[in-house]
């Protein structure tokens, strides 16, 4: 039997923490702790080793961005971190994704979307709606990178891995990648793992940011979804 997914909720609003905890617990997810600020979140992660953290950006004492950086930097196998925000175009969301967060959710997410998102990131997928990703990139990515120039790290990728990264950056899931490239889903997962390892990245979301910032794909590229 699969072990229950273990999760920490970090938000300075008591009502939100309680609501998220009730929703997730009702679906069989083990909420192992609640934190009211980033410092508490770090201590809880150290003490409980959760699979996923729901992390609010704006919290007192230590914000969620700094907590995200520290959690991802200090753990050999850090949890997946989902950023909670009230603004889908928040600059801090982009920074958190660049740091290795697995994606983000708006705080008015439905219970069904919340549960699905938490379970999705545990598998290694990213929470990145292509349209929102493009808006974030357009607003906050460096604008002085020539569109034809590749990030120097991308030279370590094989041609097939570059193809996978391009499609991944357009918002395709592993299943969609497999169908488009006529590969098995297992093979696609292997390619994604190798891409992350070669580029020393924490998450698929981070890979998407690198793909855009490097000029491998542009925000206006076709086929990225809406």
TrEMBL record:
HTH luxR-type domain location: 150-215
Entry-annotated residues carrying 4-aspartylphosphate: 56
Domain Response regulatory: 6-122
InterPro entries to which the protein is assigned, alphabetical: CheY-like_superfamily, NreC/VraR/RcsB-like_REC, Sig_transdc_resp-reg_C-effctor, Sig_transdc_resp-reg_receiver, Tscrpt_reg_LuxR_C, WalR-like
Swiss-Prot/TrEMBL keywords: DNA-binding, Phosphoprotein, Transcription, Transcription regulation
Top-level taxon in the UniProt lineage: Bacteria
Short name of any one Pfam family annotated for the protein: GerE
PANTHER family in UniProt: TRANSCRIPTIONAL REGULATORY PROTEIN NARL-RELATED, TWO-COMPONENT RESPONSE REGULATOR
Protein name per its UniProtKB record: Response regulator transcription factor
Organism of provenance: Streptomyces coacervatus
